[in-house]
Amino acid sequence: PLTDVPIGMWMSAAVLDLMPGTRRASQALVAAGLAGAVPTVLTGIADWSALHREQQRVGLVHAAGTAAASMLYSASLVARYQGRDAAGRAFGFAGLSALFAGVYLGGHLAFRQAAGASHADQLAHLVPLGWHDLCAAEELPDGWPVTRRLGYISLFVLRDGDEVHVLADRCSHLAGPLHQGRIVTDDNADTCVVCPWHGSTFRVADGSVVHGPATARQPSFETRVTEEGTLQVRPV
Ligand code: FES
Hints:
- The chain is of the alpha+beta class and 236 residues long.
- The chain has two domains: 4-111; 132-235, Rieske Iron-sulfur Protein.
- The chain has four helices and ten strands; from the N terminus they run H-H-H-H-E-E-E-E-E-E-E-E-E-E.
- Strand 9 and strand 10 (230-235) form a beta hairpin.
- Helix 1 (4-17) packs antiparallel against helix 2.
- The relative contact order is 0.10.
- Bound molecules: FE2/S2 (inorganic) cluster.
- It comes from Actinomadura darangshiensis.
- The chain crosses the membrane at residues 25-46, 58-78, 90-111.
């Protein structure tokens, strides 16, 4: 991705800054990183505009970290052009620290908040707090996954004897339909579902990942059955 350009350039510049006789090379790398940061920021703004509120909050802090890094590297470049190499290196290392903070939050957005590689969005912002009626418990086949809708969200529903397990249906890897997956048991005899697309395996009790390629837990729901026999769910 585009982010690799400024990150790669600036990390390389930091390595060269630790070596003697590399002034011109590290100056060129800092400048190249700044040039690469411009399209990265523009695509970041476009991505950010499509996120929901919780993601946008983290996105703003992520942007603040990377903006601070860009400003520090700009100051570093100016200092280097003025021949103030020690100041240039100091600004560069400060910029790298700010960059790492921003990159960490960018990773959190992508892999944990479903803005990128993870498609298992946290559902709390989509599902109001409290219990929600889902369907009649008796209509669920035993041991066979089905899908049910809760508002806009598709859910994976598996009845296992007296227990009912409910997960988000879109796989956290690339949004494969879990209700079409195989039901298996893992080494601890826990019931799991295997995604039909690339084989990610999740425990149905809590959505935890048993096998990748998924890296993020599948969002899960608590369940209960009312006296009238209605299955109710609420997000964990
Ligand atoms: S979409 Fe489920 S493993 Fe890839």
